[in-house]
Amino acid sequence: MILRRPLLWLILLLAALFAWLPLRGNNVALREDLILVAVAIILTSNLNLMIGYTGYVNFGHIVFYGLGGYVGLYLATVRGWHLVVAALTAGVVVSLVALLFGLGILRLRGAYFALATIGVLEAVQAFVSNFEPWGRSTGMYVSFESYAPLGGPKHALWITYFLIVAVMALSLILSLGIKRSKFGLGLFAIREDEDAAIVLGVNATVYKAIIYSVSAFLPAVAGALMFFKNGMIDPSIAFEYMLSLEGIVMLMLGGQGTVAGSALGASLYERLRSYLLTSPRLSEFHLVIAGALLLLVVRLAPGGIIGWLYQLTPRSREVVE
Amino acid sequence: MTGLLEVRGVSKRFGGLLAVAEVSFTLYEGEILGLIGPNGAGKTTLFNVVNGVYKSDAGTVSFFGKDITGRSPDQVVHLGLARTHQIVRPLQGMSVLENVIVGACFGREYQSMHDARATALEVLERVGLASRASSPARALTLASKKRLEVARALAAKPRLLLLDEVLAGLNPTEIAQMIELVRSIRNSGISVFMIEHVMQAIMNLSDRIVVLNLGRKIAEAPPAEVVQNADVVEAYLGFPDIVDKLRGAS
Questions:
Q1: Quick check: helix, strand or coil at residue B111?
Q2: ipTM of the complex
Q3: Structural domain B1-70+160-250, CATH architecture
Q4: Distance between CA atoms of residues A308 and B10, nearest Å
Q5: Residue in A179, A193, A200, A258 to test binding to B, most B beta-carbons within 10 Å
Q6: Average model confidence (pLDDT) for chain B?
Q7: Fewest beta carbons less than 10 Å away: which of A70, A181, A255, B165?
Q8: Beta-sheet strands, E only, within chain A
């Protein structure tokens, strides 16, 4: 049972800390730091479902986040829907789109699949950049009235923050739940040897399509919330290819295939990145660090930090996850 | 006895090569049917057609009264037809136990994780791998990996088990143990269809033997008759009287 996993309680504790720390003393600066960490954890843990669990490298994972942002912002501002409804709808819509894409490109394996995911990202970005209702390449802005149902802008920012923290907790719980489930076992079998898994009775086609779609849901919800919070969206920030790559670095750093690893890698890398980006001398230097980190991890500890820890004490893997 | 597996006129072509040509045979419930033939005769290809890894170009396969021609391997397992691989394919990163749990979870009974665990432990005990349950699958010796292949297939609770060269590469002691295992599997009510190169073993184990050569069936008979069959001897050794023929010609 998932309730008996210590990691579940750690996740809830983490979420509680995220919610409480900035609230204490109304610390807006800390909130803005933590929201980036939360989004990084959401993206990384859902990416982990594809890369870590199923063994399919998705270079275009950010497309779900961006597309969710667009759908959510459109519904919340142009259509005037409540933010929560708009964000959930964005999640559902993007998951369905992912299911369609998935049934197409998941026939490919290995490097060919990875290349196709870049194609999906490019195609969606090109489509959105020319889509009139979404403002083409100039994007969309959140109208001031949209904040009204949430009790004005100041309130709205806090509410959005709490919602994102909740999505972060849900992402990690989802990862843990899948890992402990029969569905997860099927995914791990596909990762180890897809053909052998099929011969053992795993319906790989369906499993892959479902997990690709599932891995789109919460990032899309997060995208809707985050771009609403930011007040605007345009194709270049919604579909930033670098973020997709950095997601992979975070996952490898923390430990692909592990729930704790996705959270740890995302937190560490995001804090490092924020530090480098804001330090006047090292701005833009973070990509060099990202590359070096990825090289080091792949070369020295392919299991990432958590994978390495689990290897040191094999019992811990069983106990924690 | 009823026909559990009925193969009728099955052909499989790879480009210009006819790997399996109009092969027909019946496997009866409760028997051990051997499949032999020289290298490249199409034995593994026939297995792959039977369990759905390859789509046949002609012919039908029916199992337990159902037409399973063209069904995918995962669907075939749910009906109770499990197999092992000639070149072992353990799920390397998983433990031995997890490997077998996968077999039970996605097999004929589609067991829950909880039941699958119990089934897996039971099967591991049966194949003699219980002491290695928590080792990573990659750490096993070849002989143990072959047992793991059998264990995974057994965990699916099959009606029919396809064994692809489970004896190849084993030493005499290991072969003897595996033969015992195959016998016990049959005695527990699971029919067996096995490819084997170790002649003594397959002659001992099989109730009947199908012989393939260059994709065609050249014999189907009990072991004692198969070894007497002129076509079979020729397929393995060339013409028995070729030396006389050559002498006569010179």
A1: coil
A2: 0.89
A3: 3-Layer(aba) Sandwich (3.40)
A4: 51
A5: A200
A6: 91
A7: A181
A8: 140-141, 232-233
**Two tokens, residue B173:** 């002691």
Token pair in block for residue B59: 């012919």
Shortest Cα distance, chain A CAs vs residue B229, angstroms:
35
Averaged pLDDT, B194-217: 92
Roughly how many angstroms between the first and final C-alpha of chain A, as a whole number?
11
**Edge-to-edge strands, sheet with B3-14:** B17-28, B3-14, B58-63, B66-67
Q: Is any Cβ of chain A less than 8 angstroms from the Cβ of B89? A: yes
Helix, strand, or coil (residue A70): helix
Q: Which residues of A touch B51 (CB under 8 A)?
A: 199
Separation of alpha carbons A61 and A226, rounded Å: 16
- The answer, for B91 touching chain A at a CB cutoff of 8 Å, is yes
Contact B85 A199 (CB under 8 A): yes
Asked if residue A3 has pLDDT above 80, the reply is no
pLDDT tens for A206-248 read 999 999 999 999 999 999 999 999 999 999 999 998 889 999 9
Model confidence pLDDT, tens digit, residues B13-24: 999 899 999 999
**Of A14-18, A269-273, A275-279, which gets the smallest average pLDDT?**
A275-279
Among the listed residues A38, A54, A48, the one whose alpha carbon sits nearest the alpha carbon of residue A221: A38
Digit-coded pLDDT (tens) for B102-152: 999 999 999 999 999 999 999 999 999 999 999 999 999 999 999 999 999
Q: Are strands B66-67 and B81-83 parallel, antiparallel or unpaired?
A: unpaired
> Taking CB atoms and an 8 Å limit, are B93 and A195 in contact across chains?
no
Q: Where are the domains of chain B?
A: 1-70+160-250, 81-157
- pLDDT at residue number A274: 86
Mutate to test the interface with A, among B71, B77, B91 (most CBs of A within 10 A): B91
Cβ-based contacts of A51 with chain B (< 8 Å): none
Does B94 lie at the interface with A, CB-CB under 8 angstroms? yes
Measured between alpha carbons, how far is A289 from A269 in angstroms, rounded to an integer? 10
* Option in B72, B94, B110 nearest A198 (CB): B72
Please state, in angstroms and rounded to a whole number, the distance separating the CA atoms of residues A113 and A58: 8
